[in-house]
From TrEMBL:
Signal peptide location: 1-22
Classification via InterPro entries: Beta-gal/glucu_dom_sf (IPR036156), Galactose-bd-like_sf (IPR008979), GH (IPR017853), GH2_Domain-Containing (IPR051913), Glyco_hydro_2 (IPR006101), Glyco_hydro_2_AS (IPR023232), Glyco_hydro_2_cat (IPR006103), Glyco_hydro_2_N (IPR006104)
Family: Belongs to the glycosyl hydrolase 2 family.
Keywords noted in UniProt: Glycosidase, Hydrolase, Signal
PROSITE patterns: GLYCOSYL_HYDROL_F2_2
Stretches assigned to the Glycoside hydrolase family 2 immunoglobulin-like beta-sandwich domain: 213-302
Protein name, as recorded: Glycoside hydrolase family 2 protein
Protein's UniProt keywords contain DNA-binding: no
Pfam families linked: Glyco_hydro_2, Glyco_hydro_2_C, Glyco_hydro_2_N
Amino acid sequence: MIKLNKYLLLLLLSVTFFSANAQLVQNIFGRKHISLNGRWNYIIDPYEMGYYDYRHEPFDQTKSGKGGFYDDREQMNKSELIEYNFDLSPTMKIPGDWNSQVEKLQFYEGTIWLRQKFIANPATDKKYVLYFGAVNYEAHVYLNGKKLGVHKGGFTPFQFDVTGKLKDGENFVVVKADNTRKQDEIPTVNTDWWNYGGITRDVLLAELPSDYILDYKVQLSRSNPKQIEGFVKLSNAAAGQTVTVDIPEAGLKTTAKTDASGIAKINIPVKKLNLWSPENPKLYQVSITSATDKVDEKIGFRTIETRGQDILLNGKSIFLRGISMHDENPLIQGRLRGEGDMRMMLQWAKELNCNYVRLAHYTHNEQMNRLADEMGLLVWAEVPVYWTISWENPNTYQNAEKQLSDMIERDKNRAAVIIWSIGNETPLGEPRFKFMSKLADKVRELDQTRLVGAALEVHRKGFNVIVDDPLGEKLDLVSFNQYGGWYWELPKELSKYKFDIKYNKPVIITEVGGDALAGYHADEDTRWSEEFQESLYKHQIPFMNTMSGLRGMTPWILTDFRSPRRQHPFFQDFWNRKGLISETGKKKKAFFVLKDFYDQTAAKYK
Ligand code: GCB
């Protein structure tokens, strides 16, 4: 009984105190902040001796809460026993995954401790937020030796309210990052990408007024493009506070009052707006003001909807000339580290004449979506509900829903983002159908101004390639992966096949492609050669074009990427070679086949 109570208490504690603060501050990069990026000291801890005592009890759940590496102790006298030392430990760059920075960590999965020192001069009338863009996968965060909380999920941001917890002068933050794969997590144990561990995105300390603008959405209404709609939410949940939304260049301004929960609904009739599109990525300066706070944003305005088999952007039928990409820089073999890396990837997509990118298979950096806004690339944004998730575990569902909601919360003001994807290649079955349907409903509850997608699979019967996944009912698009010419059949034989699609919706091929080792040349029947991949694209394009409803595609994939599943020592060597661009930045032959097709399509849809 006593034991049970103890565990119950621990569970309660972990739920109430030890989770990241729920509501993210919108546009944290647009607020006053200091960056905690830079070189952090790290300790590799495969046995987690900095977290558990020798009876395997977590130090941070003992009465004193002391004893873990998060104390960052220094030896005070010559007799004292301390078996770690951050100051004498090596450093790595943050943001940055550990696998690509330290050779011996290339395959490491487990716990690493990271510590950064910083100076703060907290004011008594301000609010302070410690923000992490992403830590893969489970992060325990401590400030000045005290636990702030835990966050799970490797690709979404989280934050802690540290008001009253900062010292005037030197402070230290310690993160225990653990990238161990687990069956019940999102993603699960099996993925076709590198499990890069660590603090992979920006860390910052933001200063806000004590009453601040917590969140906002300013977008064109889905049903009425002559109306900007949305809301402003203040941190102070009280009625009658005034907020203003001002778009000076468009001559639009409105003032509204909050309800009892601190939310003010926004409605601005539009006179004339220069609409955002890939050809015209117009962003307006938007200022949001409350009595005590002001935030500036750049926002584009566009509508997106489907009608029959058409996708309409600002009312006009569009073809999504896309490419899939991972959040990985093939040249340095690690996660994208910042704006330069991100621009390189999107610029390559532009060179292919894309107007659209699929940011697979998880939430990419917030800056990536901001760059897409600026550069004029439409975005398919996805959560890592990938392959064989634990469909029947309610905690797994909650985790997936949280990652999805956090992504939507974060990126809901981006004109570029037009599709929220709830997952990739999830296997048919009743529990999966329930799980995925709930996610689709959640998206519609949170955001009615975008489309809902998922990368489905095909199956074959004779020469029919069939798409009849019941989840299709819940989606706005028929979006599916098909690997004709690579995992089934040879490229030349594809013309024998025809598509049999159950739904009368716009068709988007979310993946198609095959591997080629750059520089390996042979005839078109020789697997792994550039000629094989080129021939695959040459046969796939007319094959896909037999579908009258084809409105877009994101072939797999822009660049070669690292994956522990890819074992062939010569052709793969832990690389998935389906990239149209190699790990040295060389464009393979197939790149130009797809580019030609996109040039023609662009002219057709002008
Ligand atoms: C897929 C997956 C993708 C893989 C790809 C492949 O269907 O969605 O994550 O990397 O196939 O190369 O097999």
